[in-house]
Amino acid sequence: MQWSAMAWECSLLSDVPEAGLRWQPEAVPAPEWVAFHAALADELGVEQIPEALSICAGNQLPSLDTAMVHLYAGHQFGHFNPSLGDGRALLLGEWVDGQGRRWDFQLKGSGRTPCSRQGDGRATLRSMLREYLISHAMHALGIPTTRALAVVGTGMQVQRDRTEPGAVLLRLSRGLLRIGSLEYQAARSRPAVVQKLMRYVAARRGWIEGADDLSALFMRLMHEQATRVAQWMAVGFIHGVLNTDNISLMGETMDYGPCAFLEHYDPSSVFSSIDRAGRYAYDQQPAVMAWNMGCLARALAVAAGTTMEPWQEMMSAWMPIYQDARLGCMRSKLGLSKSLDGDERLIEDYLLLMQQYKVDWTLGWRQLAESLSENSMAHARLFGGKVVELEQWLERWRQRCLAEQVSEQTILQTMQQHNPARIPRNHHVEQVLTLAEKGEDGPFFRLFHALTNPYTEDAVAAEWQQPADRSFTEEYRTFCGT
Length: 482
Ligand code: AMP
Ligand code: MG
Prior knowledge:
Blueprint: H1 11-15, E1 20-22, E2 32-36, H2 38-44, H3 52-57, E3 68-70, E4 74-76, E5 79-81, E6 89-96, E7 102-108, E8 123-124, H4 125-140, E9 147-159, E10 163-173, H5 179-187, H6 191-205, H7 214-235, E11 237-238, E12 260-261, H8 285-304, H9 309-315, H10 318-333, H11 343-356, H12 361-366, H13 377-381, H14 388-402, H15 408-418, H16 426-437, H17 442-450, H18 470-475
Antiparallel strand pairs: 1-3, 2-9, 4-5, 6-7, 7-10, 8-10, 9-10, 11-12
Helix pairs in contact: 4-16, 5-6, 5-8, 6-8, 7-8, 7-10, 11-14, 16-17
Bound molecules: adenosine monophosphate (AMP) and magnesium ion.
């Protein structure tokens, strides 16, 4: 199967022409490979043919008929912008893999488009490598996400706060529609187009039955997003810019601009330089996603021609749905499978201890397993030594584990499968990106490799498990639009 010989399709353009504009990328002077994910290419049956470099750089299109700029709107920090769209991205078309699944192939940083506004349509090497690394780390953590196939250096400089080398990213997605895709059409009073987009989403998901039942689709998306946020919270992921244009209708985590991971457990952690009010702080994510579901509901109400009343009723289910998803994730982190009264209190009490003693989120969970049978010194050290409240809590947890009526081994296994040993720690990410920008990409790929098996102990990868100094985390800032 070859990229250029394949019959590329673009069902979005053919099924919902209102959703995009045909467009072409702008060529770059000196494309060179920076990263190519051969395993992902294999998974989808994509060969690395000689033209691949030109295609990934945006210097050649796999098909002239399928490339498009997607039009979407979005609520950004609570304010509606009716015209966003792909300002620096271009959908090349769809690839159908061996199992008949469709994948959107999209370039990011491929030049100006009709949606670029004041932007240059380009991306920095640093931010594209960041997305490449973190999207694969999320996938390895078991969290649905877009995934990068390649990063290509362009030979161009990009002006941001400083002049930086530029790059183009090729990312793959089960579908790149967002809540903002529906908001764009709803704002233009096109109920039939919103309906078509939802039918397209249902078809991509294989939700054949009830593809026209907007309420049923809405409830599915509510469940899916609740699960997604619960998964983010469980690994300490802070998306950083949960605007409705960044919330996928395919349930994928997407747009890794200002994202970061928790180090010591502070629920109000926020790292994005522009998020001064902490709207998208770690502990705000469930509430903000509920707010985003309200935006989705408003677009669907336009499509259905209804008032908001029935949607509000459906939305009132968000908190119970989310709490259920969250409890499921947190129980697994404690090694538990059954659902018993008191579990929530047990979880909350451990969180309070972690917060009080500023315990590293990842280690605080990973090393808990070592205290299952007897107090582990390494685990206690995370709390600054022997802490009576911790010992009392551990005793309660051990009693609760007995109620599972399974072997200790089973509990430990569950914990190891849900508490990663490694996450992309902010200080490591920045360190390897700085070196990669200077042409030294060894550490970048070492970290990348260490993050592909985050749940297994690996002595070689241990160098990536150490938390940052508290002062680094307190001053750490991430940026959008890089
Ligand atoms: P983001 O913050 O990356 O989700 O982007 C928000 C909006 O700004 C989207 O419409 C992007 O296409 C657009 N955008 C971000 N960076 C650029 C850029 N360098 N040039 C043109 N448009 C951009
Ligand atoms: Mg975006």
